[in-house]
Amino acid sequence: MYLLSLFGSLLRARTHCVALTVVLAALMTALTPGCKSVSLDQPIESRTWWLDNLAMQPVIPSDNPKNNAQITFDQASVKGWSGCSLIRGTYSRAENQLRISSLATTQAACASKGRSTLERNFLAALHATAQYHIYGTELELVDASGHTLATLTSAPLH
Fold first, then answer.
1. Entry pTM
2. Residue 158 has pLDDT above 80, yes or no
């Protein structure tokens, strides 16, 4: 009831347009709890991003966390682990555009066919990335057509 009273007061006072916008935004957020908020230029650097989903399929984590696919962006370089091999490359980003290029791996043998498939698909997703979106601690890699390639979760570096 208090919010309705506040809302009515704000409508009557034209000088409070900014306050009305804030109240409406808060109401919309409260009424849409399942929606994600998007950051168009939140930095992706100085974090480790752990692979959670690849081609809309959950990635089953390894018993040893060091074997899980992950990447870290730092200055203009990207490095990480494909699930089988070390990854190194370069990247550039502006707003929500992201290009990952010059990827090289150590080409170590994978322990299983499943890990080999994961590595190949993860590297293909990194190559095809054209955009990114951040939702809290989630990084979504997107291709030029707007299709989600992979979803990763961050853990701040210590």
1. 0.72
2. no
